[in-house]
Amino acid sequence: MTRSTEFSPAWASPPGETVRQLAAKKNLRSDDLARAVGLPPGDLSQLFNGELPITAARAKGLAGVVGASVRFWLAREAQYRRDVQALQDDNRQWVSSLPFADMARYGWLKTASSTGERLRHALEFFEVSTVDEWRDIWLSDRAGLTAYRTSPVFTAQAASVAAWLRQGELAAAELSVSTWSRDCFERLLPSLKALTRVREPAEFIPQLQERCATCGVAVVIVRAPKGCPASGATRVKNGRAILQLSVRYLRDDSFWFTFFHEAGHLVLHEDRLFLEWYDRRELDSHEEAEANKFAGQVLIPPSEEEALRALPHEYRNIMRFAKNLSISPGIVVGQLQHRGLVRQDKLNFLKKRYSWSE
């Protein structure tokens, strides 16, 4: 008999399991049971696990040797097949909701041609055995993503966001990180501003990761797959913090402000997942405002606010002001634009632009 490789029906209870239990209680020999249902003894295992259906003839034989009625066995078989179909439909729907093409392209999991292979790879990626287990971890009240259900498009984005967060966890697990210390991290942050003046990500990201790791923070850069609108996320798990960035906007002002904004969440509100949307949807305006203020004041201390507002909008003055604060000129431009002091289309040549290396 050819066995299906698309889906395993082990998550639905086959009627053969009931047959096995009743036969054991009656001390029924395998040969006698096989004869009653018209099967070779070697094929009974396929009846037990649901690969062989309970036909009308088999139901009659079961009723005679293990008990219950023909109607019971046929109803049990029909219910099982409905359960298996529902599971197959649910699995297919879940697999189709994942950004599988990008996940494979970015090397998060193996490429696959069939739905069954995709299902297996996706379950392995999330380290779960069923789609229901995935939902329990990522979408239940115990999971951080529930805080974002107020988003009208959350349902459509949930699988992509979960995939991005999961890859962040896997990337963080590869880093050697100390135990999370909020005080250590808060003291470290001002010294990180000098890294904003380093042009190449290949040079400053390893330094950023190494220095943050001493305070128990795993900094990971994970490209957002299709359907994931996240620009950053933070959470504390198992005694260490994860600060995850998608670098959706490949500019130094956006990268560094997002980093210090996420750092603000870790310092000010470490108790749950914080997830930032690239379109700046504020799911908790009070905490987002606090993180924005924190980031702005780390980059440009309040004592320099007056000087920033009085700064001539000329690139030499901006570069001098940035150097004195040990930050990149692009950050100064971004902050001037954020305050409405400079138009969004002005002075952008001072912002450094990054690119993804495929």
From TrEMBL:
SUPFAM superfamilies: lambda repressor-like DNA-binding domains. It holds the Pfam family Peptidase_M78. Residues 219-332 form the IrrE N-terminal-like domain. It comes from the Bacteria. CDD domains: HTH_XRE (cd00093). Gene3D superfamilies: 1.10.10.2910, lambda repressor-like DNA-binding domains. One of its GO terms (molecular function) is DNA binding. Belongs to the short-chain fatty acyl-CoA assimilation regulator (ScfR) family. This is ImmA/IrrE family metallo-endopeptidase.
